[in-house]
Amino acid sequence: MAMASSWRRLPLLLSALVLALSVLLAAQADIQRYQFDVTTRGRPSTRANGDRVIVNVANRIGHNVTIHWHGLKQRRNGWADGPAYVTQCPIQGGGSYAYDFNVMGQRGTLWWHTHIAWLRATVHGAIVVLPARGVPYPFPKPDAEAEIILDTYALQLQWGKTYLLRIINAAVNDELFFSIAGHTMTVVEIDATYTKPFSASTIQLSPGQTTNVLVRADARPGRYFMAVKPFNDVPVPVDNKTATAILQYAGVPTSVLPAAPRLMPDTNGTGFVAAFHDRLRSLNSARYPAAVPRSPWTGTCCTPSG
Questions:
Q1: What's the pTM value of the predicted model, to 2 decimals?
Q2: Which N-terminal residues, if any, form the signal peptide (predicted)?
């Protein structure tokens, strides 16, 4: 399973793609400097109150490449979005480019990845946009947090603690089901937008989608499988395999066999997906209102091309 955590970071299998990135974050007159190599997991962590982010990318391979900041709205700096031949020319081998953008009005889990042809399926990592200083989460504060992307690992928990898992579907074209054996997840955010919390034993993620869940480590201490399998509702071939990783309680030896998750939805489980989506609601609180236009304007725009 493609996963990564706050506590354990592993090199990518595709380590032939070597990019050196440096991140400069500014937060309320503070300047924080980050240096990381995207052959390992990078975690640009910034605030939601207008921080400026500068990422210097050095292309050390023989292929053109760009970096896309998936889900960042790029207000007033669309040229930094990253899709090759759309918002920029690609960075040629041996060249470099500085992405310079502001994070405005967002908080939550997003991610970054290369964005040119099928190099999109190579290097990637999490973007965690923290609330502004002094602003709490709109749910009980977790004891710890971890990112779960597509990369093999085992996640260790302490019994009795609550964890915020930032789950990212980094599969290029696959919708996925995700489940943790013996544990219930509380969904609190999807695509960097807070939701009304609800419980689920299995969640569904679209390609590129992020979902934050709270998990209470209150099961019998042991080892439990985390599993993903594809969701596909069209009559085309799909790689119908289940990938697993390990959720392990501290102090439990690795010789203990992991418990398997309860039966997951069928590959074409449209009924489950519809019911899951029906439970999604905006938080719509005093701090995070759902500002829906009451008098929407409807129009059609046609753009000639050719």
A1: 0.83
A2: 1-26
Q: Which CATH number is correct for 144-278, 2.60.40.420, 2.60.120.20, 3.40.50.880, 3.40.980.10?
A: 2.60.40.420
Extract the tokens encoding 26. Answer: 């500014």
Distance CA 217, CA 198 (A): 17
Gap between the terminal Cα atoms of the chain? 42
User: In this structure, are residues 28 and 85 in contact, taking their beta carbons and an 8 Å threshold?
Assistant: no
Tens digit of pLDDT for each residue in 150-194? 765 789 999 999 999 999 998 878 899 999 999 999 999 999 999
Q: Which residues pair with 244 in a beta bridge?
A: 227
Which long-range contacts (C-beta less than 8 Å, at least 24 apart) are formed by 235-239? 238/174, 238/267, 239/174
